[in-house]
Amino acid sequence: MGTVFGLGGLLLLPVLLATGAPLLDSWSNAAVGVYMALVPMFVGYVLFGWGLVHVHASMATTLSLLEPAVAAVLAVLVVGERLPATGWTGVALVVACLTVLTAPAPGLRRRHEAGGPGRCEDSGDATHLARREVMQSPLSPARRDSGRGAGRDRR
């Protein structure tokens, strides 16, 4: 992320020189620019990077889909924007869909708690549990391949 934003900033310097006079006209304008660079961008992406280290990639991808809905709600609460009924419906649908996606499947959850064949060290990520269950199936291609090699050794 540092490389992407660093190179992006360098590439935008000519744009700042060509169109940035209003930004540099007063201290208050410059302060807003510095604030926007530090708080929403720098701190936000540092926290985002920290979160990526501590969350599974599939969960991070799923939760990043919530960003537009959060931005819309913050625009209403902080800036005073008005969101039409269709916008609120969209926010509700995004939240509902992400709730369904992040909730573990009931059958997999019971098997995980019972320590059955789908058991894994993961904290209940339904996708991971399902993948483990497929790999442990006798019909799994990986399982069949390993069985062929073992059969040859016994002959």
Structure description:
The chain is 80% helix and 0% strand. It has 155 residues and is mainly alpha-helical. The longest helix is centred in the first third of the chain and has 28 residues, at 27-54. It is flat.
Summarize the structure.
By secondary structure, the protein is an all-alpha fold. It has helices at residues 2-19, 21-25, 27-54, 57-64, 67-79, 85-102, 106-114, 126-136, 141-154. Helix content is 80%, strand content 0%.
Topology:
Layout: H1 2-19, H2 21-25, H3 27-54, H4 57-64, H5 67-79, H6 85-102, H7 106-114, H8 126-136, H9 141-154
Helix pairs in contact: 5-6
Pattern of helices and strands: HHHHHHHHH
**Radius of gyration, in angstroms, nearest whole number:** 25 Å
Shape label: flat
Helical content stands at over 70%
Number of strands: 0
Biggest sheet architecture: none
Number of H- or I-type helical stretches? 9
Mean pLDDT: 77
Structural class: mainly alpha
Low-confidence stretches: 118-123, 143-155
In whole angstroms, the N-to-C terminal distance is 55 Å
Q: What percentage of the residues does DSSP assign to strands (E)?
A: under 5%
Main features:
155 residues; mainly alpha; 9 helices; 0% strand; flat
